[in-house]
Structures are given as C-alpha cells and as structure tokens.
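Example record

One chain of 249 residues, shown exactly as stored in the release files.
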Amino acid sequence: MKKVMRNVVCFMLAISMAASFMLTPNVEAKASTAPAKAHATVLEESSFTVKLVAGEYKIANLKSSSKKNLIVRNTYVDSDSDWTGSARISVYPKKKGKYKVSFDVVDRNNRVKQHHVVQVIATYESAVKKVSIGGKAVYDSVNPVFGTMIFPKAKGKLKVKMTKGYAIKSIEVTTYDKAGKSITKPVKNGKKIKLGQFRYKSTSSMNGPGYEYWWGDLFADTEIRITYVDKYTNEERSWLFTVHRLAKN
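Predicted structure tokens for this chain:
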C-alpha cells in the first residue's frame, strides 16, 4: 500500500511540474541593444551599432536633438525580422557639445518594439595625438603633417602618442607580399617596424586566352591599426592610418 501511495504521489508531482513549465512564460530577453553613449569628432563622420533580435526589422523615427548641429542617418541595416541582425547609425557633428539621438526599432508591421536614446558626445579631440616612424612624424593631430605622401624611410621605430585619457590596447601593422596578399603582425609601441615594399594586387580567377583582369594600388602601403579604449564611452575603438612608399612591383 505504501508503495502504491508513493507512486501516486510521484505521478501527481510530475504532473504538477509539467503544468508549471507550461504556465511559466518565456523570460528570455529578446530586445534590441544600443550603446548608452557614443563619441564623435566634430566635422567627421562617426557611427554606432544597434543589435537587432528576432522580431525586429528596421530603424524608424530617427531624430537628433539638434538638427542644426548634429546630422544623423541610418546608413546600414542587415535584418530579416526572423533572425538576429544589426543596424548602423551615422552621425556628423558640426559643433562641440552633447546631443541626443533617439529612434525606434520596429517589426515588419511597423509596430514599435523598442525605443532607444543615445547620448552623442562631440569633441575636437583625436584619440591618437601623434605617430612617428624613425623619428619622422607621419601623423600629428595638433600640427598637421604635409609632404609625407611618399614616406622616405624604409624602417624605423614606431612611436604612438595618445591624447590624455586614452589607453592603447593593441597595435597591428599590415603590409603586402609580392603576390599582393596582406601580412598583419602585432607590434609593440616603440619597436622597430619595416615598411611595406609591395603593393596590394588582385587578379581574376576567370582568366583565359585573350582575357585579362587585375587591379592594384599605386603605392606600397603600410597600414597601422591602433585599437584603444575611448575615455568617454569605455568602448574599444580602432584608428587606421596608411603610410605610402614607392612599390617594387
């Protein structure tokens, strides 16, 4: 008898647990996300990303708190409404200051799913203050460098000076081999680098008799990518600068 009662209790408990699972709503978060803050440089285009989730389709009702001083546009959308996606909001501040960008994320029927407000901090600051190679400046945010279209040095110590409050996370240098393929290497600040000798080239895989297609850069480029932490938003951002030299190919 005790065994029968125990089985009955277990059966009732199983039914109760199953019912509780059926009645418990799905609490998984399903909402688009956007940064609370974004940093932009005056008179330069900048952007931030909005991550979309299933059920969300596009950006709507995009507004700037100052139409006169901050231009805003939705410049990229990759969404299906049935899958996750993303959108890009680009901004162009005309004056220094703090602005607000507001917008809605809607579904395919234009029903509002989420409302976002992003604070845009516009400054005249350049995160990277100065870059030099072998003691010769290739970039200077305070005193613009002229006459460095074709860099005269083939190698030298790479020195990057950041504006106060910005921290370097990493530095990568990209050059190209004889075949035009990129070679990217991590570099430490203050270490010697060798600038690229060959230019980027691309050829068609469809080449046949009487047909030729290829294209390439004019110069042998050395691309310097500096990843840093933005002092206003604490997010990682990248700064890319290209140094040109005469190519051997």
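Notes: The two ends are 93 Å apart (CA to CA).
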